[in-house]
Amino acid sequence: MSTQSKLVKSLVWGGGIIGLGVLLLEYTVPTEESLRKNMSKDLQRQVERLEHGDALKNESARLMAVIKENAQSDRPVWDVRGLSDIQRK
């Protein structure tokens, strides 16, 4: 066998293996929508709670930033600024 035919043969086999892997991945891995649709109601509620938890973490981070900013200022303790922006959101 010549070197050129070995190269072509290995490229064809390599491409076939990669193509088969892509096809298997496409047809066996469920989409997020179908995965959520097939979940039990209890698991769906847990996922929603976790997604809502991310929003709470963001809100807590904003509140902490306002607290740190007010702590570093020269204003009196009762003169809190920036808190009304967080309460509106």
What attributes characterize this protein structure?
89 residues; mainly alpha; 4 helices; 79% helix; elongated
Task: Describe, in plain words, how this protein is organized in 3D.
By secondary structure, the protein is mainly alpha-helical. It contains four helices and no strands. The relative contact order is 0.06.
Write a brief caption for the model.
This protein is mostly helical. The protein contains 4 helices and no strands.
Q: Strand share of the residues?
A: under 5%
User: What class, by secondary structure content?
Assistant: mainly alpha
Order of SSEs: HHHH
Q: What is the average of the pLDDT values? A: 85
Count, helices: 4
Helix content: over 70%
* Main beta sheet: none
Distance between the termini: 72 Å
List low-confidence stretches: none
The count of strands amounts to 0
The radius of gyration computed from the alpha-carbon positions, rounded to a whole number of angstroms, is 28 Å
Please state the overall shape, judged from the principal axes of the Cα atoms. Answer: elongated
